[in-house]
Design brief:
This protein has helices at about 40-55, 65-70, 80-100, 130-140, 185-200, 215-225, 245-255, 270-275, 290-305, 320-330, 345-350, 375-380; strands at about 5-10, 15-25, 30-35, 115-125, 145-150, 170-175, 180, 205-210, 235, 260, 280, 310, 340, 355-360, 360-365, 385-390, 390-395, 400. The chain is α/β, with parallel strands linked by helices. (2S,3R,4R)-2,3,4,5-tetrahydroxy-N-oxo-pentanamide binds near residues 212, 262, 312 and 314.
Amino acid sequence: MKITAARLIVCSPDRNFVTLKIETDSGLYGLGDATLNGRELAVASYLTEHVLPCLIGRDPFDTEDVWQYLYRGAYWRRGPVTMTAIAAVDVALWDIKGKALNTPVYNLLGGKSRGGVMVYTHANGRDIAEAIDSVQQHISEGYLAVRAQCGVPGVESSYGVPKGGKPYEPAERGLPSESLWSTEKYLNFVPSLFEQVRMAVGKDVHLLHDVHHRLTPIEAARLGKSLEPYHLFWMEDPCPAELQEGFELIRRHTTTPIATGEVFNSVWDAHDLIRRQWIDYIRMTIVHGGGITHAKKTADFAALYQVKTGFHGATDLSPVTMAAALHLGIAIHNFGIQEHMAHSALTDEVFPHQYRFDGGYMHPGDAPGLGVDIDEALAAKFPYQRAYLPIARKLDGTLTDW
Ligand code: EZ4
Ligand code: CO
């Protein structure tokens, strides 16, 4: 089999998505997600100008060789733009491979290690009462694990809290909006949030929380310690993770489990975090971390150190990435949990898919390949619109991590 064509579909059904379609001389095609939230066209250009011309004539079964060709062969390596571009190609090739062999991709990755993929979803509220309602709402939908975020008194527009009654969406059209941040107010508030949520929902529900890179290691250590009585499933991204050894300090002080890595793009970003056992869950996602080929290797490396996966799964990861994550998640032994922030009905219509939610678990479905398609005619009705993630400033105006 040979690759005959490769092109991008850039669309915005409620939010921007960049999708790669690779066609072959067999008539089969594969889809890959190339969405990098707020920097979409950089990846699109990297693919169109530099990668796609090199794919024509290659055998789509050669996922390892194509991956090395795009990684080592570029000389310049790693970084979110490059690794998202490589991921798009890699995932599209796995999709083709599954279709050609008439089997779901999970069968090429080890088969099923479990009956379903446990997912967590997002609950949020402007105040604690609303947050508790939101957690309970998701429990009644069948979720076994829920992430709780809440407005912090005295801090305008906290991370994860929706504006104006709309579902929370991490990117907004127009130029970047600004939000304010106070570590002091946050640290004083969050323990009371989880005290009340835990009291309301009982012991069995898995509760998670995303700190979104906003603390220093010693502040994160304090937070982790103060949350211990409420037995969180994890504390996510407690601090910016460029400084991997910063996590050693957090670890020394708290038994609250730690998840990090949604902004990572290769195993090298998490190499020390994993081999030193400074984290419990690695969140690097398939779309930003070099595709299924590299995510599988990263998961296998993490397994040696009893670190599990907890892949990023917000709405800026398209249904193609969600499907890929579910195929990998059901196959690997050290799967931990999968994030599931539901896409809008319009996004789901543009990307018809086989995966489904049932009683707290998701299943990738049994269609050959990934089981996701794209309705190109519908996608064309929703052209790309520039959008950005917000930025954050401290109360005195200093730019800080969003
Ligand atoms: O801010 O996906 O855990 N989920 C998250 C997300 C991220 C966005 C960034 O594009 O942290 O809400
Ligand atoms: Co996060």
